[in-house]
Write a structure and sequence with these properties.
Blueprint (H helix, E strand, L loop, with lengths): L1 E3 L9 E8 L5 H8 L17 E7 L3 E11 L2 E10 L9 E7 L4 E6 L3 H18 L1 E4 L8 H17 L39 E3 H8 L12 H9 L1 H12 L9 E3 L6 H4 L24 H15 L7 H21 L16 E3 L3 E4 L3 H17 L6 H7 L7 E5 L6 E5 L7 E2 L23 H10 L1 H5 L9 H7 L3 H11 L21 H15 E4 L2 E4 L9 E7 L3 E8 L2 E8 L7 E3 L4
Parallel strand pairs: 1-7, 17-21
Antiparallel strand pairs: 2-3, 3-6, 4-5, 6-7, 8-18, 9-10, 11-12, 12-15, 13-14, 16-17, 18-19, 19-20
Helix pairs in contact: 3-16, 4-16, 6-9, 8-9, 8-10, 9-10, 10-11, 14-15, 14-16, 15-16
């Protein structure tokens, strides 16, 4: 190893060097072996390939004193102590990290001087808080539940911004904010680095709730780490399809390592002989490919909202869509069937409606995802590039519906079915409401809105599993359906103070503490209560209770910003930027 130091960089003030060498066999190597990808290993993206990390702690006027060992709660530690050589009113310590120059040499990357860092940080937060906000019942006593919901919205947005521009996405199970697991579950005798559902493992269904609220909060610049995560592993996802099934398209699984292969535990260590090597041997995750489409949609929406440059992500979107075309044709042929059904549609079987309705035929969550993402891609692409995707759009099968008893009468009402058929139910999600959110196929201007409302109110699975906890989305669904009282009740529960000292360290819910799914879904629901976009129409206060005063600044498609103040149930101020979009606003207050 060689350290490349700047000529003027003093060595004598180095206090401590810390270096970590990866073992010869990393989790990447283990997964490649387990999952039968050895033949293409040299072609794969490997973030652990450089094998080393570390850095330097430095500071003038310090001398080494001693080292001490101890235990804090359940974690052993060693501390290196330094003391001042001469008395001083202030001391300055700097941290440098080792960054790879090439495969062998390393450069000490020194952080900004404290004065520069402070100025940069202050300017970032100033712009951040001016960009977007939701303030409820300002001036009320701090025991006011609605005021707390508004305060906690702000606090959780702050948590998301703390990893605004990291190389890796903010993780759903704590982000940067972790603490000793004994405070969450005393049966987890690990260090504060522990998180349920892994450290380097990303769960797509959970990650989406961290990033969707950034569209309306105007924080699309903070979404690129999540987009880049998928872009980096695109090649590995495409290699999976080629190696296992011999067709094109990127196969992204649900539980995914940061190099694009399934988490080895979810892939399964004890797999039946002859089991499809491309499949996770896991009854929750089998055939669940479509959550990656939500990130494709976010990319297209980031462009529609803010004009973000997304050309580098178009191959990712196209390859993710291509997988569904190629793979379900492949599966039909493997069964000895025609590639398409009698109506010329893909046979999306076997599939999965979220993790809940398994071995599903034409899962509604998959159909809505394919339809919405394809339509959004067509709208983005230049005219000459659209035809293949127009053709693909015609292959997507229609959604299924079913009659369910009205709980308040003897009637049976038409509802959205989670699929045309399924073999079993594993989890407690409500994929039959995904056409409402995130896919927006039903909205307050839809002629068949009642079908979606019936699904929320009458589907026995939906009703039985309703709660505000964790990643549950009922607050979002009710807001999108204009069900104000329901949205209000769920928001007050979801956005209430957590059980920990910091009000927005919610959890563990279904994951861990802090639960960023909990906060992300809470943010989305509040945004949808205040502002919804349907085509070019901006619905203002579509599900907002008239007894909550509020001032907000939120973002909408086409670089639009909406600022409004509601007091005593009356609109007091409204500013739409650009002003040309003011005519697109439709006020939805009761009177």
């Amino acid at each position: 190893m060689v350290w490349l130091l700047d000529e003027n960089e003093p060595i004598e003030d180095i206090l401590l060097c810390f270096i970590h060498f990866n073992p010869d066999s990393t989790i990447f190597d283990r997964c490649v072996w387990q999952q039968g990808m050895q033949d293409v290993k040299g072609l794969m993206y490997n973030p652990l390939g450089n094998g080393m990390s570390g850095g330097v702690l430095r500071g003038e006027n310090f001398a080494f004193k001693d080292s001490v060992d101890g235990t804090y709660l359940q974690t052993d530690y060693r501390a290196w102590r330094f003391e001042s050589v001469r008395p001083a009113r202030s001391q300055e310590i700097m941290l440098s990290v080792l960054a790879p120059e090439d495969g062998k040499n390393w450069h000490l990357n020194v952080f900004n001087e404290p004065s520069d860092a402070k100025k940069t940080t202050e300017e970032f937060w100033k712009q951040f808080w001016e960009r977007s906000y939701i303030c409820i019942n300002t001036g009320r006593d701090t025991t006011d539940a609605a005021w707390k919901a508004g305060r906690n919205y702000q606090l959780f947005r702050y948590q998301l911004a703390c990893n605004a521009y990291g190389s890796w996405p903010t993780k759903f199970n704590g982000g940067l904010f972790t603490f000793d697991p004994v405070f969450v579950n005393d049966k987890r005798p690990f260090t504060p680095d522990f998180r349920n559902w892994g450290g380097g493992t990303f769960t797509a269904q959970n990650q989406r709730l961290v990033y969707f609220p950034m569209l309306k909060s105007g924080d699309t610049d903070m979404m690129t780490p999540q987009f880049d995560f998928y872009n980096r592993i695109l090649k590995n996802a495409e290699l999976r399809s080629q190696v296992y099934w011999g067709h094109e398209g990127a196969c992204f699984t649900e539980q995914i390592e940061n190099f694009g292969l399934p988490n080895p535990s979810e892939y399964g260590w004890k797999r039946p002989e002859g089991f499809d090597p491309g499949m996770e041997y896991n009854k929750w995750l089998e055939y669940q490919w479509d959550t990656a489409l939500e990130f494709c949609f976010m990319i297209l929406e980031a462009n529609r909202y803010s004009g973000m440059e997304i050309e580098q992500y178009i191959p990712l979107i196209e390859s993710t869509l291509t997988f569904f075309d190629r793979h379900y044709r492949y599966l039909a042929i493997e069964r000895g069937e025609e590639e398409l059904d009698g109506e010329g549609h893909l046979k999306l079987y076997p599939g999965s409606a979220c993790e809940t309705y398994k071995l599903a035929d034409n899962a509604v969550s998959t159909i809505a995802a394919l339809k919405t993402v394809t339509e959004s891609l067509i709208a983005y692409l230049p005219q000459e590039s659209r035809q293949p995707w127009i053709d693909f759009l015609s292959l997507i099968p229609p959604m299924s519906f079913r009659k369910m008893p009205d709980l308040s009468s003897a009637d049976s009402l038409l509802t959205i079915s989670p699929a045309s058929s399924w073999a079993r139910i594993n989890n407690t999600e409500a994929p039959q409401l995904y056409p409402v959110w995130p896919w927006g196929m039903y909205n307050l201007l839809s002629e068949d809105l009642e079908v979606a409302r019936n699904t929320y109110l009458c589907d026995s699975d939906v009703v039985r599993n309703k709660t505000h906890v964790g990643w549950k989305q009922y607050n979002i669904f009710s807001a999108c359906l204009g069900m104000t009282d329901e949205a209000k009740e769920l928001t007050l529960k979801k956005m209430a103070d957590s059980d920990h000292r910091f009000p927005t360290f919610w959890g563990p819910g279904y994951d861990w503490t802090p639960d960023h799914n909990w906060g992300g879904s809470g943010m989305i629901g509040m945004q949808e209560m205040l502002l919804q976009s349907v085509g070019d129409t901006l619905l203002l206060f579509p599900a907002w209770p008239s007894d909550w005063d509020v001032s907000f600044r939120l973002h909408a498609p086409h670089n639009t910003v909406v600022e409004a103040t509601l007091k005593d149930g009356k609109l007091k101020e409204l500013t739409v930027t650009p002003s040309s979009r003011a005519n697109d606003v439709k006020l939805c207050l009761p009177d």
